[in-house]
Design a protein that fits this description.
By secondary structure, the chain is an alpha+beta fold. The protein is built from four helices and three strands. It has a three-stranded antiparallel sheet. β2 and β3 form a beta hairpin. α2 crosses α4 and α3 packs antiparallel against α4. The longest helix is centred in the middle third of the chain and has 18 residues. The protein is elongated, with a radius of gyration of 17 Å. 26% of the residues are buried.
Length: 118
Amino acid sequence: MAEKTGYKATTKFLIASPSKTRAVAKVVNRKGCSEAMAVLENMPQKGAKLIRSTMKSAIANALNANNKLDEDMLIVKEVRVDEGPRLKRVWYRARGRADMLLKRMSHITVVVAEKAGE
C-alpha cells in the first residue's frame, strides 16, 4: 500500500506567497531526494527553506516506515503548494489614505516514493 502512494509530509499556514514558492517546487519535482535536497540547500529563496524542511519530514517518514529504504532509493514524487488563508493588514498611504495589504499563506505537501526501477 505504501509503495503505491508514497510517503507524505504536509506543512500548513506558512507565511510565504504560493506563487513564489511554486517556482521553487517546480525545480525539485521528480528528482532524486538527495539531489533535490542539494539543490534546495543552494537556493536563496525563502520557499526553498520551507520546502526543504517539509521534504526532510517526508524523507524521515519514509525511512522510519520499516521498509528498509535508503535515502538514495527515494524520489520526489510530488511537491504541491496550495494557497492558504490570507492575513489582511492595513497599509497606510499618503494623504490619509489606506490600502489593504494581503499576507499570503501556503500549504506545502511533499510526497516521496521508492524508485520504480528498484
